[in-house]
Amino acid sequence: MQDGDFSFSNGTLKRDFELLTQAVNASISGIIITDNQQPDNPIIYCNEAFERITGYDRRDIIGHNCRFLQMDDRNQKEREILRNAVRNGEKCVVEIRNYRKNGELFWNELYMSPIQDEQGNVTYFIGVQNDITLRKKAEQELRQEKDKMEKRIEERTRLLKESEEYLASIVQTVRESLIVLDVDYNVISVNQHFLRTFKVSSEETEGKNMYQLGNGQWNIPRLKELLEKILPTNNPVIEFEVEHDFPHIGKKIMLLNAHRIELEGQFKDRILIAIEDITERRSIERRKDDFLSIASHELKTPLTTIKGYVSMLERLMPENAGEKFKGVVNKTSTYIDRLNNLIEELLDVSRIQTGNIELHKEAFDFDKMVRETVDGLQTANKSHRIVIKGKTTSNFVGDESHLVQVMSNLLSNAIKYSPERDEILVYLSLVSNYLKVSVTDYGMGISPEDQQKIFERFYRASDIQQRFPGMGIGLYICDQIIKNHGGSLWVESEKGKGSTFSFTLPVSERSAV
């Protein structure tokens, strides 16, 4: 073959590949590819339709096993069908309940097929999914309405009247500002808490357009965004934050929960809005953050001085000093280091809350960083054996010191919360264009309820509080560091069977080896 022929062939292959990629991304079906050669069969590719159907961004998808789409709905027989197909390297078709990132249920018709190499080994699986929620809903409605249409209309009419009476009683008794709007955003009713909080009368609100209340005080762009753009496509909307300076009552920070109530024959018949005034709470949080920042900085100076004196004692200690005296000095130095680390964590929290966290990004050997961090912890902890498997073989452009902090925290937690076991597993891999790190212990495990909150600031599970000391800020800091690198941190756990903390980091082309 002549050189020119090869160039033409190579160019043709490139155009064919680009055309194939464009075709896959243009598909209305969600398409994923998983790597059967890696533990837990992680997703290594997804097209744009998969992101659109599930509501997840690509960085939240790559590296996960497909089961994350079932959230806590794990007792579906289809999951066993999928597991058996993966185990046996077979294709299968299932209809399974999945959940979007916002928690919304959708039915997924999933076609899964294995991809084999030349030796017949299953190396990858390709999955094609279609959202069949509307079809499922139509089938269910058809079954229900075939012989019961007249009865349903009568029942709906009765329920409508009862619902309106019930709703009216709730609106007046709930200790939160509540507003009921019609489809044109006119106020049908408000409760007494709303009238007291915003210092208006029922005559000034009921029957008026929401945006015109108080001479236009409620003509708020964020409120319009909620009612006109977000609510019609995402019902309900939870904890939507709105900040506004009202002319008569001053600045308010509000959390809005909005729910569209669909009634017979109409798309949007009623809109219920609950308003929580969090102005004072935010003020208290800011004062608390200011206190933490000031207190941490103030403690830093005398602690540095004390550390200097203890270091001097260690250097000037007589050779004939007693073992008890040496032990006291050593323990003092150890506890000073612990206190210094605690203060540094509090300062990190303060920097994160104020948006002042600084990342000094440079290229470094990612695998070497992980090995050195593990070696340091292994030297200090003889009770557990830390095993590293896999590799990324990548240079990563990021803040190495902050990522060392993440690894140290995850490994220290794995050791702390698995006192009855003696092994910790660290697995490194390159998944698509993401680095993935997983730290697995075989200890206490974390309940599903605590998993939802474990990355929140100062949150600690109740059973952990009783057995282990701490402030509940380590995982919050780790989560924020990973997010500031454009990555994602998550946990998979089961009570009594251990936990796996994983994070992914995007790798640019210029940082790959």
TrEMBL record:
<protein>
    <recommendedName>
        <fullName>histidine kinase</fullName>
        <ecNumber>2.7.13.3</ecNumber>
    </recommendedName>
</protein>
<feature type="domain" description="Histidine kinase">
    <location>
        <begin position="294"/>
        <end position="509"/>
    </location>
</feature>
<keyword id="KW-0812">Transmembrane</keyword>
<dbReference type="GO" id="GO:0007234">
    <property type="term" value="P:osmosensory signaling via phosphorelay pathway"/>
</dbReference>
<feature type="domain" description="PAS">
    <location>
        <begin position="16"/>
        <end position="89"/>
    </location>
</feature>
<dbReference type="GO" id="GO:0000155">
    <property type="term" value="F:phosphorelay sensor kinase activity"/>
</dbReference>
<dbReference type="Pfam" id="PF13426">
    <property type="entry name" value="PAS_9"/>
</dbReference>
<dbReference type="InterPro" id="IPR003594">
    <property type="entry name" value="HATPase_dom"/>
</dbReference>
<feature type="domain" description="PAS">
    <location>
        <begin position="163"/>
        <end position="213"/>
    </location>
</feature>
<feature type="domain" description="PAC">
    <location>
        <begin position="92"/>
        <end position="144"/>
    </location>
</feature>
<keyword id="KW-0547">Nucleotide-binding</keyword>
<dbReference type="GO" id="GO:0005524">
    <property type="term" value="F:ATP binding"/>
</dbReference>
<keyword id="KW-0597">Phosphoprotein</keyword>
<dbReference type="InterPro" id="IPR035965">
    <property type="entry name" value="PAS-like_dom_sf"/>
</dbReference>
<dbReference type="InterPro" id="IPR036890">
    <property type="entry name" value="HATPase_C_sf"/>
</dbReference>
<dbReference type="InterPro" id="IPR001610">
    <property type="entry name" value="PAC"/>
</dbReference>
<keyword id="KW-0175">Coiled coil</keyword>
<keyword id="KW-0472">Membrane</keyword>
<dbReference type="Pfam" id="PF02518">
    <property type="entry name" value="HATPase_c"/>
</dbReference>
<keyword id="KW-0418">Kinase</keyword>
<dbReference type="InterPro" id="IPR050351">
    <property type="entry name" value="BphY/WalK/GraS-like"/>
</dbReference>
<keyword id="KW-0067">ATP-binding</keyword>
<dbReference type="Pfam" id="PF00512">
    <property type="entry name" value="HisKA"/>
</dbReference>
<keyword id="KW-0902">Two-component regulatory system</keyword>
<dbReference type="InterPro" id="IPR036097">
    <property type="entry name" value="HisK_dim/P_sf"/>
</dbReference>
<dbReference type="GO" id="GO:0030295">
    <property type="term" value="F:protein kinase activator activity"/>
</dbReference>
<dbReference type="InterPro" id="IPR000014">
    <property type="entry name" value="PAS"/>
</dbReference>
<feature type="coiled-coil region">
    <location>
        <begin position="128"/>
        <end position="166"/>
    </location>
</feature>
<dbReference type="InterPro" id="IPR013656">
    <property type="entry name" value="PAS_4"/>
</dbReference>
<dbReference type="InterPro" id="IPR000700">
    <property type="entry name" value="PAS-assoc_C"/>
</dbReference>
<keyword id="KW-0808">Transferase</keyword>
<dbReference type="InterPro" id="IPR004358">
    <property type="entry name" value="Sig_transdc_His_kin-like_C"/>
</dbReference>
<keyword id="KW-1133">Transmembrane helix</keyword>
<dbReference type="InterPro" id="IPR005467">
    <property type="entry name" value="His_kinase_dom"/>
</dbReference>
<dbReference type="Pfam" id="PF08448">
    <property type="entry name" value="PAS_4"/>
</dbReference>
<dbReference type="GO" id="GO:0016020">
    <property type="term" value="C:membrane"/>
</dbReference>
<dbReference type="GO" id="GO:0000156">
    <property type="term" value="F:phosphorelay response regulator activity"/>
</dbReference>
<dbReference type="InterPro" id="IPR003661">
    <property type="entry name" value="HisK_dim/P_dom"/>
</dbReference>
